[in-house]
Design brief:
This protein is of the alpha/beta class. The chain is built from 8 helices and 10 strands. Helix content is about 30%, strand content about 20%. About 45% of the residues are buried.
C-alpha cells in the first residue's frame, strides 16, 4: 500500500537494466484505452480482431493509475479519433483494408472512431478524472498534431510511464516519438496489449533491444514497488 507521502525518487526493476526515476518529473501516459478498440462493435472488431485480447491490460493499468493518483503524478490519457467531417483523417487511412465498417461509419457505439461518439471515449474502468489531461490525437503517435509536447514541457516532465493499446502500433509509435524528443520511457509490459500476442511480445522486445534503444520495459508490480515510500 502506498504511503500518503509523495515519493521523490525510485528505482524501477526493468529491462535492459534498472532505471532511477525522479517522480515529480515523471508522467503516466495511458494510450487509447477506448471503447472503439476495447469493446465489441468498435473499430478494432471491424478490422476482424478479437477485442478480448486487450482486456488483460486493464487491471495492471488500473493499479498503476490508482498509485499515480495517490502520489499526485501527472496523468495523461490519449484517444485516437477524428473530427466529424473527417478533415483530419487521410484517405489512405480511411480506405485501407476491408473492414466491415470504416472510420466515420455508424456503429453500435456511434460513428466509428469519431470524437464525441460513445465508442471514441475511454472505458469506464480507467475513466479520467476531471483534473487529468486527455489528448485527442488523429494519428498513431501521441505527439503528432497534438499539444502533448507543450504540456509535458509545461510540467517539467522528463520521464514517461507508458501503457495502453496496442503495443506494436500506438504504444510503440508514441515511445519512438518520445525517444526522439529526449524523454526516458518505461513501458509497462502487462499494462499493454495487442490483438496479436506475438506482436505484443515483439513490440516490447524492440523497445528494450540494443541496450534500450527506445526505452525500458517493466512489469506493473516493479513500477508499483518503486513508487512505494519508506516510512523509516
Amino acid at each position: 500500500m502506498l504511503n500518503s507521502a509523495k515519493p521523490t525518487r525510485g528505482v524501477v526493476s526493468a529491462e535492459p537494466e534498472p532505471i532511477k526515476l525522479d517522480w515529480p518529473a515523471t508522467a503516466l501516459l495511458i494510450i487509447d484505452m477506448q471503447r472503439d478498440f476495447m469493446e465489441p462493435g468498435g473499430f478494432g472488431e471491424t478490422l476482424g480482431n478479437d477485442v478480448s485480447q486487450l482486456a488483460r491490460a486493464v487491471k495492471p493499468i488500473g493499479a498503476v493509475l490508482t498509485a499515480a493518483r495517490a502520489t499526485g503524478m501527472l496523468v495523461v490519457h490519449t484517444r485516437e479519433g477524428h473530427l466529424p467531417d473527417l478533415s483530419d483523417a487521410p484517405p489512405a487511412k480511411v480506405e485501407r483494408g476491408a473492414p466491415s465498417l470504416r472510420i466515420g461509419d455508424p456503429g453500435p457505439m456511434g460513428r466509428i472512431l469519431i470524437r464525441g461518439e460513445a465508442g471514441h471515449d475511454i472505458i469506464p474502468e480507467l475513466y479520467p478524472l476531471d483534473s487529468e489531461i486527455v489528448i485527442d490525437k488523429p494519428g498513431k503517435g501521441a505527439f503528432y498534431a497534438t499539444e502533448l509536447g507543450d504540456i509535458l514541457q509545461k510540467y517539467g516532465i522528463e520521464n514517461l510511464l507508458v501503457c495502453g493499446v496496442t503495443t506494436e502500433v500506438c504504444v510503440n509509435t508514441t515511445v519512438r516519438e518520445a525517444n526522439d524528443r529526449g524523454y526516458r520511457c518505461v513501458v509497462i509490459a502487462d499494462g499493454c496489449a495487442s490483438y496479436f500476442p506475438e506482436f505484443h511480445e515483439m513490440g516490447l522486445k524492440m523497445i528494450k533491444a540494443q541496450g534500450g534503444i527506445f526505452g525500458w520495459v517493466a512489469d506493473s508490480a516493479a513500477v508499483l514497488e518503486a513508487m512505494k515510500v519508506s516510512t523509516t
